[in-house]
Amino acid sequence: MKKYWFVFCKDDLLLQHAEGECYTVPLQEEPPTEVKPWTTVLNITPLDGIEVKAYSIDAPITSASDIQMADGKWPNGQSFVMCPLRQSYYKLPEALYLKAGKCAELLYWDRNTKFCGVCGGTMKFHTDISKRCEQCGKEVWPQLATAVIVLIHRGEDEVLLARGRSFKRDFYGLIAGFVETGETLEQAVEREVMEETGLRIKNLRYYDSQPWPYPSGLMVGFHADYDSGELHVQREELKKAGWFHRDHLPNLPEKLSIARRLIDDWLNSPTASY
């Protein structure tokens, strides 16, 4: 029976050219590349009734000879590419991109849980998403780092945008940060906004959430209204920040991010009660 094979080399995913500008992941009975005796092949939740497998390879695919097709032949006009997971958002159908993210997260978890944090013993898979220490019996499951992100409105036509020090491209995003132990999502938003901008917010409203497999995150998005305070940028986190009118926005985040979805939601709802 055919299976989806999600094959990673570090942060790159093996894609198979479908037609035009479209790509997919290998769908065949056997792995599309050689699987070493020590390679861990993960069983992932099926997609549309089709089994899903994931594993990592040591070197990227560079030629047709690296691919093992079901019939042993290289099909005419078919090609494979290694693509960074982020960029695969623009090449794959959404369902495959989301499944690729889950595969990447579980492979990352597997690499980082080889040994027990209590006794140092070897961790072995107990279920598809849990491991148990062979010596002391401690069990572990995949962990998520939860982060909040917020679009702050001032009136109907202005929002606060910021350029983070970690940004690799020249764009402005939103205020965001990780949830700390012992606080609610709402408290995390208010704290991050105060720490990074010195502003107080009100009317905090949940928008949506997004898996963020870079490497194992969950982004929780909110809208909020400006309440009070003068803008003071936290230089350790941000290069700059400011209020921007909807008609004069800077470069915005990529379409794949919930930050962009929050901004687009605001731009497409000019009459909403923000």
Strand content: 35-45%
Helix/strand-derived class?
alpha+beta
What percent of the residues sit in helical stretches (DSSP H or I)? 10-25%
Beginning-to-end CA distance, first to last residue? 52 Å
Largest sheet: 7 strands, mixed
Number of strands: 16
Radius of gyration: 22 Å
Task: Count every helix, treating DSSP H or I runs of 4 or more residues as helices.
Answer: 4
Mean pLDDT: 92
How are helices and strands ordered from N to C? EEEEEEEHHEEEEEEHEEEH
Overall geometry:
globular
- pLDDT < 50 stretches: 70-76
Give a brief outline of the structure.
The chain has 274 residues and is an alpha+beta fold. It has 4 helices and 16 strands. The protein is globular.
Structure report:
The chain has 274 residues and is an alpha+beta fold. Helices cover 16% and strands 38% of the residues. The protein has helices at 85-88, 94-111, 185-197, 258-267; strands spanning 3-9, 12-19, 22-24, 27-28, 42-47, 50-56, 80-84, 123-127, 130-133, 139-140, 145-154, 158-164, 175-178, 200-212, 217-228, 238-245. The strands form 3 sheets. Strands 1, 2, 3, 4, 5, 6 and 7 form a 7-stranded mixed sheet that branches. Strands 11, 12, 13, 14, 15 and 16 form a 6-stranded mixed sheet that branches. Mean pLDDT is 92; it is low at 70-76.
